[in-house]
Design brief:
single chain, mainly alpha, elongated, UstE-like, Steroid 5-alpha reductase C-terminal domain-containing protein
Length: about 90
């Protein structure tokens, strides 16, 4: 997958989950008591998505596939960012 979101990030679904959790936290911030309790959830999920069972495990599983090293070199690991290569995206 190198078109659409996959040309900007290797893990668009994990990034989407990350945004959902932080969005729920932002909604809880209307009340400081709820925000104090709710802040643990997005932090734990961010850790799991990026360094725990999400991105890290998937990349370890796919690292041996042909062409993955080149894809990894030209595509952001988590945050959607433009490719460092010159020219338009696919």
């Amino acid at each position: 997958m190198e078109r659409g979101l996959w040309s900007w990030t290797r893990h668009p679904t994990y990034f989407g989950d990350f945004l959902v959790w932080w969005g729920l936290f932002a909604q809880a911030c209307r009340d400081w008591r709820a925000a104090a309790v709710a802040c643990a959830s997005p932090m734990v999920m961010s850790y799991l998505l990026i360094g725990g069972s999400g991105k890290r495990l998937l990349e370890n599983h796919t690292a041996h596939r042909p062409g993955y090293a080149a894809y990894r070199a030209r595509t952001s690991g988590f945050l959607p960012l433009p490719s460092p290569r010159k020219g338009p995206h696919r």
